[in-house]
Design a protein that fits this description.
Layout: E1 3-8, H1 19-27, E2 30-33, E3 51-54, H2 60-71, E4 76-81, H3 91-100, E5 105-108, H4 113-120, E6 134-138, H5 151-155, E7 160-164, H6 170-179, E8 187-192, E9 200-205, H7 209-216, E10 222-226
Parallel strand pairs: 1-4, 1-5, 2-3, 2-4, 6-7
Antiparallel strand pairs: 7-10, 8-9, 8-10
Helix pairs in contact: 2-3
Bound molecules: S-adenosyl-L-homocysteine.
S-adenosyl-L-homocysteine (SAH) binds next to helix 4 and strand 10.
Length: about 260
């Protein structure tokens, strides 16, 4: 009996899968990938003999049945998922029947589209004194949100928000951000297909981003970044991280005396 690996494919560019993920693709006897989101170029790490299937049109039960079946025949079976499999990846639902059948399961991290989008836009998600917290969230839709995690209450923190699965409702995102206290002039970044050849990065404010998305026809596969840290690189600032302050004691480096000592 084989082992089923849930492997993060990364955001799109084939060289953004981890070395471990690529090695498992090369060893796999069978790969089931989410064709709606995973870039097919990532499959270049598989061997020509490998059985490769797209789960785009499969229901959850069919995906499970496929993985259960292939695990009887191959030592290594890969379920290839976009970004990092532990974020919005239904791994628990898929792994439960495998666990019940006694099939070993492993998870391999991937570069999440949240990280890839920040990098594509040349942005940092945290900045000293401005924000040190990142929330990964989405608007509620078919998948209901827990009551304590309403978008409005999360947005009210004013920290960085990485908003998945919500670009179709960018107008509602903007309305709710403003209702939660964000200024209409607050910066917002949209990254469509981060690291794909046709990647698009839109920068705007809450005021103009809906029109920008409409003009660029971006209504799917995009990450929404909202943060007081956006654009910080382009602003003059005398706030630098304490990490780089010579007087700040670090674990492996004793504090250095400064000129004022
Ligand atoms: N596990 C994935 C997220 C899956 S949910 C991850 O870690 O990235 C699917 C959502 O992820 C999409 O609706 C979109 O918001 C985002 N997404 C996935 N790939 C993306 C990409 N290449 N660029 C921008 N957003 C992406």
């Amino acid at each position: 009996m084989g082992k089923v690996w849930f492997v993060g494919a990364g955001p799109g560019a084939p060289d953004l899968i981890t070395v471990r993920g690529a090695r498992l693709l090369a060893e796999a006897g069978a790969i089931l990938y989410t064709g709606s989101l995973v870039a097919e170029t990532v499959l270049q790490w598989a061997t020509p003999e490998c059985e490769i299937a797209d789960s785009k049109t499969m229901a959850l039960a069919e995906v499970t049945a496929w993985l259960l079946d292939r695990a009887q025949r191959h030592a290594v079976v890969v379920r290839l998922q976009t970004g990092d499999p532990t974020l919005y990846g239904v791994v628990a639902e898929l792994a439960r029947p495998l666990d019940a059948a006694g099939i070993p399961v492993g998870i391999v991290s991937g570069v999440s589209s949240a990280m890839a989008s920040a990098a594509a836009a040349g942005e940092c998600l945290t900045l000293p004194e401005l924000t040190q917290t990142v929330i990964f969230t989405r608007l509620s839709e078919r998948t209901a949100m827990p009551e304590s995690e309403s978008f409005a209450s999360l947005a009210a923190h004013g920290c960085t928000l990485c908003i998945f699965l919500s670009i179709e409702r960018i107008d509602a995102v903007v309305t709710q951000l403003i209702a939660a206290g964000w200024a209409e002039t607050a910066p917002i970044v949209i990254v469509h297909k981060a690291t794909w050849p046709d990647e698009v990065v839109l920068r705007g404010t809450l005021n103009d981003i809906v029109a920008q998305c409409r003009a660029a026809q971006i209504d799917r596969q995009a990450l929404i970044l909202v943060s007081p840290a956006l654009g910080a690189r382009f602003r003059a600032s005398n706030t630098t991280s304490k990490l780089y302050d010579a007087a700040f004691p670090r674990r492996f480096r004793p504090a250095q005396p400064t000129s004022e000592d």
